[in-house]
Write a structure and sequence with these properties.
The mean pLDDT is 90. This protein has five helices and six strands; from the N terminus they run ββαβααββαβα. The protein has a six-stranded antiparallel sheet. The relative contact order is 0.26. The protein is α+β, with helices and mostly antiparallel strands.
Length: 160
């Protein structure tokens, strides 16, 4: 699994939320649906990927806010975002990381104008093996939601 040197990562990362349905509780808590590893967007043969933005600087949250779907003016993450501290991932996911059942990477996206893909230098992925046990996958998804705690709506963020 491709995890880089700890010095290559900031203290936390963001995960965008498109729709609150099945992703956000009535009290605003993050639900496991935000962290659905579904295999649809994986460019990796061995691992399922879940996109995140590393919080390198204030522009990373702006990039997440302005990200749009290819060939559409609709923002991809219309509802808001959640944030997870990397130190918590390293602590609570220590055995998953050691067993190569969970990892993370930095994978910036170069823009491709012909496909209407925006550049994103903050992009990265959370990674799980494609052949992971279903129970472990669910544990990871629910644990990520617990670590994310609340979902911040864009209108409450001070960004909009």
């Amino acid at each position: 699994m491709n995890t880089m040197n700890a010095n290559d990562y900031p203290l936390d990362f963001y995960r965008g939320v498109s729709n609150p349905e099945n992703n956000v509780s009535s009290s605003g808590q993050a639900l496991a649906g935000i962290f659905q590893f579904d295999g649809r967007n994986s460019s990796n043969v061995d691992y399922d990927e879940l996109s995140i933005n590393w919080n390198d600087d204030p522009d990373s949250i702006q990039t997440l806010y302005h990200q749009h779907k290819p060939h559409s003016e609709d923002r991809q993450f219309k509802y808001g975002y959640c944030k997870i501290e990397l130190s918590e991932i390293k602590c609570y996911f220590r055995s998953y990381i050691r067993n190569r059942e969970f990892g993370y990477e930095r994978r910036p996206i170069e823009g491709k104008e012909s496909d209407d893909i925006q550049p994103n230098p903050y992009h990265g992925n959370l990674l799980i093996p494609k052949d992971i046990e279903k129970g472990i996958k669910k544990n990871i998804q629910h644990s990520l939601a617990t670590l994310a705690r609340e979902v911040i709506k864009w209108e409450d963020s001070g960004i909009v």
